[in-house]
Amino acid sequence: MSPTESPSRASTPGSTPLLEVRGLAKSFGDHEVLRSIDFTLDTGKVLVLIGPSGSGKTTVLRSLNGLEQPDAGTVSVAGGEVAIDFAGPVSAATRLALRDRSAMVFQHYNLFPHLTVLQNVTEGPIVVQKRARADAEAEAMALLERVGLADKRDAFPFELSGGQQQRVGIVRAVALRPQLLLFDEPTSSLDPELVGEVLTVMKELAEEGWTMVVVTHELVFAREVADEVLFLDGGVIVERGAPERLFTAPTQERTKQFLNRLL
Ligand code: ADP
């Protein structure tokens, strides 16, 4: 399903970014994990976050999904349809409104172990979004078919490979019809031979026009799929740019060192 097929999730018209993040800051105790993170993301674009472990990438994603509450900064979705200033009190309703706009794909899949594949995918649409079971199941099956897992509909997560589990994780996120797909190192728990099947699905979603924020160490994927790459270190964006430029001609010493270690 392409993002625009969803009736309540039409693209944002004009030049308003789908996502606008300004001055995001977060500390855990006296550890400043994010310091003034700024970026925008247009509808249908893919933003990739790279950086060393502990640089704050996951905290950025979790802040976008309402799983983490930043100390300061603003997040605006769809030209202010959801607008949050974290410097002030944020109501539970506002946090839920933010969460409703995005869906997260986790490093460790986070499937419900006691539910079948089909139940994992339809749980959110049926229980949270109150969609009709028949519709939710039909859409889930169509999505599972697309990632080659229709025959696993009644399997439990423990019966699947990591790559299959993560493809279910992606289908589960897409089935929520979010405006924004968030990926938190989706392939870093996988055996190397299973990484490709997950990246292929992600690439197809990008080509279909999904708006995506991806935390990954897969630089080849980033280079092919990202519209923009942010390099984070120590909770700040050290460098940003188109992947072609950032990977071939980084301007910052820290970026060069990081890339040299990975390439
Ligand atoms: P990355 O995704 O780049 O590896 P994270 O956003 O996961 O980085 O973490 C950034 C820093 O914040 C790390 O030093 C991490 O230990 C710390 N951190 C993350 N979550 C918590 C938490 N709930 N409590 C305390 N420290 C945390």
TrEMBL record:
A GO term, aspect molecular function: ABC-type amino acid transporter activity
Residues in coiled coil: none
The entry's keywords: ATP-binding, Cell membrane, Membrane, Nucleotide-binding, Transport
Compartment(s) where it occurs, according to its Swiss-Prot or TrEMBL record: Cell membrane
Recorded superkingdom: Bacteria
Gene3D superfamilies for the chain: P-loop containing nucleotide triphosphate hydrolases
All residue ranges annotated as the ABC transporter domain in the record: 19-259
GO cellular component: plasma membrane
Classification via SMART domains: AAA (SM00382)
Annotated InterPro entries: AAA+_ATPase (IPR003593), ABC_ATPase_HisP-typ (IPR030679), ABC_transporter-like_ATP-bd (IPR003439), ABC_transporter-like_CS (IPR017871), MetN_ABC_transporter-like (IPR050086), P-loop_NTPase (IPR027417)
Primary site of residence: membrane
Membrane topology, from the record: Peripheral membrane protein
ATP-binding listed as a keyword: yes
Protein name as annotated: Glutamine ABC transporter ATP-binding protein
Organism: Marisediminicola antarctica
